[in-house]
Structures are given as structure tokens and as C-alpha cells.
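Can you please make up a protein's amino acid sequence together with its fold in C-alpha cell form to help me picture the idea?
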Amino acid sequence: MSLVLDPAAQDLLFREARTANAFTAEAVTEEQVQAIYDLVKYGPTAFNQTPLRITLVRSPEARERLLRHMAEGNRAKTAAAPLVAILSADNEFHEELPALFPAFPQAKDAFFAERPAREGSAAMNAALQAGYFIVGVRAAGLAAGPMTGFDFEGVRKEFLDDDHTPLMVVNIGRPGPDAWHPRSPRRAYEDVVTTV
């Protein structure tokens, strides 16, 4: 069975999409980010929870504050990217559940009354939403460079609070010259999928 999605869209979102390491100077607008979010907010999560939080690093001062916490190999590309987003998990997401999951508003207290349960669920579902966000960036015709090479606690203290856990930093923009490393291999279907 073939996929329903147009082959060009398949290429844009998956086959030709790669982690970008260099970008042009073209700005990423607020309207583009809004359009990305308005698309990816429909991606499914457990209990329709939405723990992902996006901190856009736009000002030169904020960029300098972020660069201090980036791993040395990630600093130059983060400094040059048109837009940088810090993706984090909101560990107090459960407060929104009665409105976001009206089919079972008791989920807030039944499953997420304790902080450790919230942190685990927030990390898993925000990571899922982060994947949707990256695909959304690609759908906008932009490239994403997600990274986990940074001081997580430093970024949390600099940009977030005790209720938010940083997940990744994502450079966003139009890919520049030599933006890509060579495509790395992928596992074959039969190496990944097991039928029981």
C-alpha cells in the first residue's frame, strides 16, 4: 500500500529533510512560528496534554545568554541561526487538563496529583510534541537543527523556572550553503518491526 501523502510532501517532511547546521540570514517571522504551532498543536498526546513550552530566543542579549550554556561545538551555529527555540516540558501541565480533556476532567487529580508522575508524563509528551514541532518547521519550508548539547541546568536557570524542564534547543531558518552533513544510514524495516 502506498502512502496518501504526496511524494513531494513526503520528501519535504522526511526523505530530504535533515538536521541543518548552517542557515541563511533570512529572518524567521512571528507569523511563520504561529503557523507552525497552529498546525502541530493537533498532534496527539496522552489525555490531550500539552506540556511543550517554546521559548523563542530573538534578542541579541538573550542569544548571548544562551550561548554561554551551549556545548562548544554548538555555539557558532546557534549564534548564526536566524531563530533559536528552547523547547521545554511544563511539569504543571495538569492544571490545564480539565479544559483540554473535558471527557475526563478528573484525570488531573487521578493521574497527575504527584509531581514525579507529572514530570514523567510531561517529558514523554513534550518530547512527542517537539517531534511534531520539528516536522512543522519542515512543513513551513524551513530547516531545524535540534540539539541536546548544552548545560540543561544552566538553561533552566537562565530562561525557565523550577516547573519547566529543558528538552532541546532548536536552530531554525532557511538552510545555507553546506548546511548538511552526508546522510547517515537508517535501520531497515525488518530490523525494527517485529510481528507477534
